[in-house]
Model the fold of this input.
Amino acid sequence: MKILVCITHVPDTTSRIAFTDDHTKFDSNGVQYIIGPYDDYALARAVELKEELGASITALHVGGPEADPTIRKALAIGADNAIRVNVQGEDSYHVAQQIAAVAKEHEYDLILMGRESIDFNGGQVHGMVGALLNIPSISPVMKLIIEDGVAHMAREIEGGKELVEVPLPLVAGCQEPIAEWKIPNMRGIMSARSKPLEIVAPIDSESRTSTLKFQLPPAKGSVKMIGADQVEELVTLLKNEAKVL
Amino acid sequence: MSILVFVEGDQGKIKNSSREAVSYAAAMEQSPVVALALGSFQATELETLGTNGADKVLHASSAQLDQGIIQAYASVWAQALEQSDADTLVLAKSALGDAVAARVSVLSNASIGSNVVELPDTSDGFKVKRSIYSGKAFAHMKLNSDRRILTLNKNAIELKTDGESAQVEQFNPELNQQDFKVTITSTDRATGEILLPEADIVVSGGRGLKGPENWHLIEDLALALGAATSCSKPVSDMEWRPHHEHVGQTGLKVSPSLYIAIGISGAIQHLAGVNSSKVIVVINKDPEAPFFKAADYGIVGDAFEVVPKLTAAINSSK
Ligand SMILES: Cc1cc2nc3c(=O)[nH]c(=O)nc-3n(C[C@H](O)[C@H](O)[C@H](O)COP(=O)(O)OP(=O)(O)OC[C@H]3O[C@@H](n4cnc5c(N)ncnc54)[C@H](O)[C@@H]3O)c2cc1C
Ligand SMILES: Nc1ncnc2c1ncn2[C@@H]1O[C@H](COP(=O)(O)O)[C@@H](O)[C@H]1O
Done:
């Protein structure tokens, strides 16, 4: 089985978000970059599937060379090889076209992604890739078992989950508890250095949106503290001041 | 040109978030607003979409569409876009809506703006403001295609309720069996509870509650408020509560009018899922808990004492 895992290179979840150049650029000063947490779940499940059934895992990222350490981490966790499409992703459609081009060339049985990226939170790329390849896309997937070429999945729905069966190939947007996050061990880190990371040129493709400006939410006013034995006071404030009851 | 709005149901009722989406389309003042409903619905339920601003409702009532098969829905939406000559498709953000919208954007050559938080600016092109970095920032984006799809965050617009009743028309899309390769074998959905993404008030519990046996504290308060319940990640990791209740960076992002956090420390990854709530109340026994910095109202105290009192106070204030 050939598995493709698409990973993002995103600010660590504890990062302070700030912008520069008159709010037109993300301020990466002092920001640590990680594999997107949802992509990390996808990768962890791919590694388990490899152990269970045998598989080859390719990690794919669309972006510039600054992401190479993040891609190496995916190799250390258990991907066998990696591809970086050497272009800055402009929007989800632009990225999806690049991923679909790689997928067409290599014909993967299973394409795993995160449910959403944690920078733009679009949750779009998996569906777009599914449509571009004309194969099913399922998200958000919280359980994934492969048996005789059929994927058995639990998909989260509002208020619960549904069980879904789809013959391969397919694209899945993953979330917990599909697998436990894996931390690379020393052997993984050593072997990652010699695993192939192929840099490929992008295909011609379009984007359909442009980002004009960023904005931070207004600063939160200070908290109003209420005594633990004055809960009636809180009820009154929520009714009359905040007007939410 | 019209605006098409996809409306989702839950146990036969139109979801409130979908009514918000119809209100949003109506407020764009670029009528007519055509709502699209798939699967079994009562006509009387669909007509009420008019009160939210729909001029017409298209109903594809085939039982094959009762289940949310992503690929099949995508092809039906794309046909509806084509046939209703709509240049804009609006829907409320949801697990199903997001998954379908992405495919439709490819099928119908549409730009997509997700997690939109307010009405578009159409003075020069089509611009939307959307939430990014899990609610920690916004981006102003221009959607450049002739067609676009907007997925809306909760509270992107005030619900409209004063419209007339709407006409319901049968819509008979072509159903391609190729799109039904996906089989949904079972659905496990809590009945009767208020859906978390829909809720206007959310009561949330963390590790400070000590164990699942104490969740009646959260549930009683939620019942008194007509609220949905949610939890922090460790709580769903330890299976004290089901996964779909977990909010935060790796869970659901909610934006209710009121979020009450009980026994939750307020880690940055938790805040990422709740910081767009209008008003936040924090109850925590530790005065240094970081959540107080993100709160509007705070009580330092033991949840086991404060919460039952608060529940009683709410009940007696009704
Ligand atoms: C990549 C990543 C993603 C993450 N995503 C999420 C996410 O999506 N959602 C999420 O929630 N977390 C997430 N986390 C985890 C997060 O960092 C915190 O560990 C978690 O939110 C803590 O949960 P908690 O507040 O319930 O528990 P704790 O941090 O243990 O806090 C318990 C709180 O309860 C208070 N307390 C104890 N007893 C009482 C009492 N009797 N009465 C009142 N208060 C009491 C304590 O003072 C304390 O503040 C993520 C972490 C990582 C690394
Ligand atoms: N630049 C990228 N390179 C590789 N994969 C990506 C990229 N952007 C998004 N993805 C994948 O698509 C998923 C959904 O992303 P998004 O639609 O941006 O929320 C992510 O979790 C990744 O698996």
Summary: The helical segments of chain A are 37-53, 68-77, 92-106, 125-133, 186-192, 231-241. The pocket of flavin-adenine dinucleotide (ligand 1) is lined by residues A 13, 37; B 206-208, 232-235, 246, 248-251, 263-265, 267, 269-270, 273, 284-286, 289, 302-304 (CB under 6 Å). Residues 98 and 204 of chain A are 9 Å apart (CA to CA).
